[in-house]
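Recap from last week: sequence in, structure out.
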Amino acid sequence: MPEKDFRKYKLISKRYRIIKKIASGGMADIFLGDDLKLNRKVAVKILSANYAGDRNFVARFKSEAQILARLSHPNIVQVYDWGEFNGSYFICMEYVEGESLKEIIEKRGPLPPETIADYAIQISSALLTAHKNNLIHRDIKPQNILVTPEEKVKVTDFGIAKSLTTDVTKTLNIMGTAHYISPEQAKGEVLDYRTDIYSLGIVLYEMLTADVPFRGSNSIDISLKHINEKPLKPSELMENIPEKLEDIIMHCMEKNPLARYPTVRELIGDLQKYETDKPLSFSAKEQNLNRTGVFIKKIRPHLASTIMAAFMVVFMVLFIFYSYKYYNDKTVSYITLSVPPLENISAENAKEILSLFDLNLIVKEEIYNSEIPEGFIIEQTPEPGKNVPAGSDIEVILSRGQEITYILTPNLIGLSLEEASKILKDFGLVMVNISKEYSSAFEENLIIDQSPRFSEEIEPGGSVDIIVSKGKETIVIPNIIDLDFISASDYLKSLGLIVVSSKAPLTDIINEPGIVMKVLPSPGTEVGVNSVVKLVISTSELLVPVPNLVQLSLEQAKNNLDSDNINYEISYINTDYSVQEGTVLGQNPEAGTYISSGSSIILFIGR
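Predicted structure tokens:
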């Protein structure tokens, strides 16, 4: 927001006086302000005017305010107030004096292990509160973590946080920051709390090494590395890395969410004991897996599923006990079972639970439901508690999720046609018009553009137009030797090339000025559009060949030039090596070219 616009926001909601801008983001600006009622400093986040009319950004902005307002924790930036003014929206938050974790890493480099553990515990505590409220942050990164001068950590920017209870269906667009995004988030899969644990693992890795584990030329490249590549261990990059701290970080960064910490509570426990002789939690679990643990691990990590799994274990024990008793007493001639409750859990988990009791899951119907997530059970028959013979069918009605009238167009940029077709099919969309264009940024047969664009609304069954790369456009340099300079230059420019020239003296073969004597690169070479082509032009002017003086001592270079009657100038440049002092490190013009009689050569001498 320009400085001249501060006047518009001097007083907000008759309470918050704007002092100065302290930060800018993609969708909002943050100002330091005074709360005139409570006489305290506050941070006021104002939605940029460019986005105030966009309902998606407004919804995201309101969501951040509502999410933060219900989270109360010393390591989460507190929201005091929010509302609408002057056609835009604002959030009034706790003002945190200090720096972002990103700024600290950039200034200090790798942080001490004890500092990393301290910061990590504080961040994890904040996430634990968010997760207890069924919220996933989805954008944990050093830029969103503030540290006060007293080493107090504050997690901020819940702008793309989502409720686990309303966001369990497949994500239709990838949000977050590429360097810190989890593999499942990059693939647009179902997310749970462990996506934040992966991102936090990347942050810990960066605190320990002062660098992120994956880099690339663009966000797609980085996201693919999160999905496919194994990161180097910090100990492979640096010395004196605490082994247990490294194990904790690498455990957070497991590709498979099931292989990570199940919750940040276990992560906090390991961080508190990484300097002791006590084993880490995941080490102990790997050594003590039992059959019940294996069964529970197989069930997807949803709160309702976990409770149900525990209930079923107890139920099995009771069932085996009473079945054995009844069998011995010979009071029944066949086994009957009490139907377990299946409502509000996924069909996948329900099927596994029923299989333990020799019962069958039958999906009777699938209907839209705005309250029950897609794939979860709305109703069952028989109802819970009814006794049925072993082998009976349990009929259920599944939720298809909330009925939608549009979806968000998936991102196809950088994909092959085969990959894009599969994604579009999964989304119920079709590919209609396919055109091709040259591209210097994308390899041949990769998608470079699409319409509608990524994240734009489109009706189910709608069509998407695709532009595919023909690869980098190349030009074969024609044979223009012996042509006059004007004709040759115009021809090369018409092909999309940039022309530069130099002169050379006449020869027995070319004995008139203005004729192309040499082309660099040579004719027949393939070059890209806008490549530079050098033409060497004949001239009757008296020229002197430039000798090669590089690596000679200054005295040797002077003697050579004096003997050829060539003028020279000297420019001294700093060098890191004593052997380069007094040596010619470079020259202009370069050797092999020509200069006019009386012109000078510049010598670059190390000192």
